[in-house]
Design a protein that fits this description.
The chain contains twelve helices and six strands. The strands form three sheets. The chain has a two-stranded antiparallel sheet. The chain has 430 residues and is mainly alpha-helical.
């Protein structure tokens, strides 16, 4: 064979390739994809969890209100826009997972702390730890004063369409959420009063002189206005109960004031003889028995004191100069207490308590009469006030109520509801 002749190519050897079954190839591909997807998912979950538990972007505490009817996405976007959370998608996904476990987002007003994580924010909203506000109604306030206070609460909504009856509100501290209507809060106060009255009336002693819950409420409101000392309420209640049993007039100054100013609760001047002589349905110097209704909203302690008065025979009490009162059974004892208080109050501008004289012979029951100073007890002539028909008079057997201090963080200071009453002595007869 010459060098110029072409060489024939030898055939390549035949290799018998073994092909894998189709199912094996499919499952293998799926496995690869699943492994890749799992890796991606794990990475995403790790990233999302890190973001979910990382410190949030909020630099300082912030209050956010979540309205009713908002869905998860809307809430998440609102929180992100407000700078509370860093990622609305992560928060929304976490909220969806919590919803599957029964923990749903709750509407309300929330305060989120600085740097709160998305986990913290979700716990706060799903647990319903929304902001609450409170308003304190002191014992002895009239319903008109309560309504005026609620009108000043900016967190409450709506107007008062129906003013509750006097005495139908239970004084207490009430907690509420922003947006609660004023009318609803008043209804809650009335419901609390009704529940308490039913409870106390069901446990009333068989010996009580009161015939109905209305009488209980009315007398308790008088006791509430007469003293602010808790330990004195049973004694003050015993004075009024004893007078009712003996048919004596109650002669309570707060009832005169309520008859003159109604629910305003304050008289901007001392009581005068003309006030005491005024014929109003509430003037217990003129009417017998209880007035037609409460003069304020009494608290639980006053109601309990009226149902369980102290076992005394007291018919009189007067201020003792220490913020409390001195009680007496007889007129002589009472006048002695008056003289003692007068000595303690020995200042030109101090209210003067008047002694009382014995009742007139033609009276059926012993009722205190207008004060007539004797020559021995008359004050100097220069203390007289004219004209006689407008001179201030002293309360005959009770002293002005002591109003307890109100919570300064909720209720603004309230002016004294009752003014001190001063007697002007008459000239001694020659």
């Amino acid at each position: 064979m010459s060098d110029d002749e072409p060489l024939d190519r030898l055939p390549e050897p035949y290799l018998n390739k073994v092909r894998r079954p189709v199912l094996t190839r499919v499952f293998g591909s799926l496995l690869i994809w699943l492994l890749a997807l799992s890796g991606i998912t794990a990475a995403v979950i790790f990233w999302a969890f890190a973001a979910f538990t990382a410190q949030g972007p909020l630099p300082a505490p912030k209050i956010i209100e979540i309205a009713k009817g908002q869905d998860r996405t809307t809430i998440a976007v609102a929180l992100q826009d407000a700078g509370v959370i860093s990622d609305a998608c992560v928060f929304s996904a976490a909220a969806a997972m919590q919803a599957l476990r029964g923990a749903k987002l709750k509407a309300g007003e929330y305060e989120f702390p600085a740097g709160a994580t998305m986990q913290d924010v979700l716990v706060i909203i799903t647990s319903g730890r929304f902001l609450t506000y409170k308003v304190t109604i002191p014992e002895g306030w009239t319903t008109q004063m309560v309504v005026a206070k609620l009108q000043e609460q900016p967190e409450l909504a709506g107007d008062v369409s129906t003013v509750p009856a006097e005495g139908s509100i239970l004084p207490d501290t009430y907690v509420f959420r922003r947006g609660l209507t004023r009318q609803k809060l008043l209804q809650d106060m009335q419901a609390a009063e009704t529940k308490l009255m039913d409870e106390l009336w069901a446990k009333r002693p068989a010996t009580t002189a009161l015939k109905s819950k209305e009488e209980l409420l009315t007398l308790a409101s008088i006791v509430e206005k007469e003293t602010g000392l808790a330990e004195e309420r049973p004694q003050v209640a015993s004075v009024f109960i004893n007078r009712l049993k003996q048919g004596m007039k109650l002669q309570s100054d707060p009832t005169i004031i309520y008859g003159l100013v109604g629910g305003k609760g304050k008289l901007d001047r001392p009581l005068t003889k003309a006030d005491i002589d005024a014929a109003t349905p509430y003037n217990t110097y003129q009417i017998s028995g209880l007035p037609p209704g409460p003069i304020a909203n009494p608290g639980r302690a006053a109601l309990e004191a009226v149902l369980n008065p102290a076992a005394t025979s007291y018919l009189y009490f007067v201020a003792d100069g220490t913020g409390g009162h001195a009680f007496a059974t007889t007129l002589d004892e009472h006048n002695a207490n008056v003289r003692k208080w007068r000595a303690q109050e020995n200042t030109p501008d101090a209210p003067v308590a008047a002694e009382q004289t014995a009742p007139a012979a033609n009276e059926v029951v012993p009722q205190p009469l207008p004060d007539v100073p004797t020559p021995e007890t008359a004050t100097p002539k220069k203390a007289a006030i004219k004209p006689p028909d407008k001179r201030p008079l002293v309360k005959k057997f009770v002293a002005e109520p002591v109003i307890p201090p109100e919570p300064t963080d909720v209720i603004p200071p309230e002016p004294t509801l009752d003014e001190p009453v001063v007697v002007a002595p008459k000239k001694p007869k020659k």
